[in-house]
Amino acid sequence: MSLLGGIWTPEIIWNLSEGPRRFSELRRATPAVSAKVMSARLKDLEERGVLSRTVRPTTPPSVDYALTDLGQELIPAIRAIVEVGSKLHLRAKAGEAAARCAES
């Protein structure tokens, strides 16, 4: 849970679930995160074995990030959290609507 509790970590893992991404693609997918924080999260996830980093010999060099097998195992957990969060959000919206109707 400490891994998934890190700020931006679930979003990064979720974005990589669709396949390898470059740093700039990950930044576009999560525009609120700074480059410094994104770099730190990617480095941490790489050190933990959740993602791999591949440097391509292009000019200029490009780097691809991809989930490892271990990282892929986190996707069902993140999906479950998203589903429960959606249900809670819908329940809260229904409660707000009911409260408005009761006030009218």
Give an overview of the whole structure.
With 104 residues, the protein is of the alpha+beta class. It is 59% helix and 13% strand. The protein has a three-stranded antiparallel sheet with strand order 1-3-2. The protein is elongated. The protein starts with 8 loop residues before the first helix and ends with a helix. The mean pLDDT is 88.
Please describe the structure with a list of short key phrases separated by commas or semicolons.
alpha+beta, 5 helices, 3-stranded antiparallel beta sheet
Sketch the topology as an H/E string, one letter per element: HEHHEEHH
Reported for the largest beta sheet, the result is: 3 strands, antiparallel
Large-scale geometry: elongated
- Overall mean pLDDT stands at 88
Total DSSP helices: 5
Whole-Å distance between the termini? 43 Å
Rg from Cα: 18 Å
The strand order across the widest sheet is 1-3-2
Helix- and strand-based class?
alpha+beta
Beta content: 5-15%
Number of strands: 3
Low-confidence stretches: none
Helix content range: 55-70%
Ordered list of secondary-structure elements with their pairings:
Elements: H1 9-16, E1 21-22, H2 23-29, H3 35-47, E2 51-56, E3 62-67, H4 69-72, H5 75-103
In short:
With 104 residues, the protein is α+β, with helices and mostly antiparallel strands. It is built from 5 helices and 3 strands. A 3-stranded antiparallel β-sheet has the order 1-3-2.
